Amino acid sequence: MLSITLPDGSVREVPPGSTPADIAAAIGPGLAKAAIAARVDGELRDINRPFEGSSHLALVTNRDEADALELARHDFAHILAEAVQELFPGTQITFGPSTDDGFYYDFAAPADRGPFTEEDLPLIEERMRKIIAADKPLRREVWTREQLIERWKQQGETFKAEWAAELPDDEELTVYWSGGDWLDMCRGPHLASTGKLDPQAFKLTRVSGAYWRGDQKNAMLSRIYGTGWLNKKQLDAHLHMLEEAAKRDHRKIGQEMDLFHLQQEAHGSVFWHPKGYMIWRQLEAYMRRRLDMGGYEEVKTPQVMDARQWERSGHWGKYRENMFVIPDEVPNIEDEGALVSEDADWMALKPMNCPAHVLIFRQGIKSYRDLPIRMAEFGCCHRNEPHGALHGIMRVRQFTQDDAHIFVREDQLVEEVAKFIDLLDVVYKDLGFEKYAIKLALRPEKRFGSEEMWDWSEQSLRDAVAATGRNTPEYGWEELEGEGAFYAPKLEFHLTDAIGRTWQVGTIQTDTVLPERLDASYIGEDGERHRPIMLHRAILGSFERFIGILIEHHAGRFPLWLSPVQAVVATIVSEADDYAHVVRDRLAAAGLRVETDLRNEKINYKVREHSLAKVPALLVVGKREAEEGTVAVRRLGSQGQEIVSLDEIVARLVKEATPPDLV
After folding, report:
1. Is residue 447 annotated as part of the catalytic site, yes or no?
2. In terms of pTM, does the model score above 0.85?
3. Between the N and C ends of the chain, which has fewer C-beta atoms within 10 Å?
């Protein structure tokens, strides 16, 4: 008999061959119906997979939403592949994982029909619902490598055969049958049958191209994306969020508001227009004031450094593929011959600021009394991101970090991290983000440093969060295995925006490796040299990405202090032009960013145009307003207007436009 230990500590004795489904049925019919999978010794498994020995068991239901969604999305991906092969014989299947909000599958379409398109999606959805309605059992089998390869070759599945031939020798190879007529190579787990899915809880969303195994030298495949959920209510909520996200797309709003543009001649870099750069300037000025109050000293470091410096820091070996390297020699200007000689020394555009900040720290002798040293830089960095990964201003190649490094003694670390968290909290709330989560990213598989160093660093970050009282569910406190940097664990700060999306922006990392590699030291109270601990930290992450997040969070309707144009004075008739200039000059003299619209257009046309440009306040003036010294105020998003005196509207707007740190 096998001993199966349940979460409450009770133990059930069952014969070999028993499954988690058997345990659920023995407990009661309600649980038997609700249980969809099981965690056996912590591993998520099929509900009908037999126990392999005495185990700890936790039954999984739809209340365990993360596990349930993972299973459902994995099943939707398989059903998508089955439906496509039924509808389009000759299609080859490749991979089909779940994603954060759904699933996708990559296909090699039959040669006689060409790539799949979005016009194919309704037909595929219909066939997927038929497969779900058939309630086909999903059954796991263990196969040998030879069986897999032979099966795929017989089916003409060249991509699957190639992948099967490369699977590790010591890995258990499994397939899943859908009924008795379709299978896929898969580790699992899966639900018990296709009928466990809600046929109204998924939608295929788009089709794109994707290279086999992500290599542009390989064949181009058709990738079909879908979103999948546990029920229609969840799906509808997600589709509504996507619709709202499309309206808030920073690229669309950026064009409507004339904030920036991107073009191929500077791939992955942003052309900031005056209005967009005004947002940048206001944000940078705000951050600079916050840093000044927080005791930071601002520095500026070189864009290009010798490759040998990056070797010493460790980045050349672990990060070189993401760096832009340049030769340290005059290029050949003749028509013949190589542009760069084989003897050229190499330099690199900095992908990060930290090594340069250590070099500043090393200038002059530092005492233990000098620490902590808080060194900040709005540093322009370059990273060689793949073209396909770039996305508007959210993911770019040239970006500016709100970067800082804090050099501390060991006894100062917890207090400094806690101070940083308090500063970050103020900044996020000032910028309109009331909710954020704190995650601790723990040591990765490939890393520098001793185990003792990692133990101490991780615990110090835990202690700092606890010191601020934010290691609670309210702040989404969570520890992430294996997601730290190669030199240090880190705290990540994930903002929640106006429509419920999360964005990882802020971070702070403890680092004892870089000071060691670059020989940074201070003189301790004992008169001996000691290594400082280096804290890498950012609040916004990068200005480009954070401004993109701000655009989408506020849907372009920035708080008045951040708005590039805070008010427009629009005339109804040309006779009011002189008064419009008076109003503009009063507002400008009070420090407000104001424009006039004196065009010979109907006022309703002007209202629509400035609303599209997200101007917060439209001040309409005509003959009557000019005579009375008033303005008709129309606020963005409001249908009505109010008549107020010029003095009053100036006072109101000045108060609203005061940055939150200066109120």
Report:
1. no
2. no
3. C
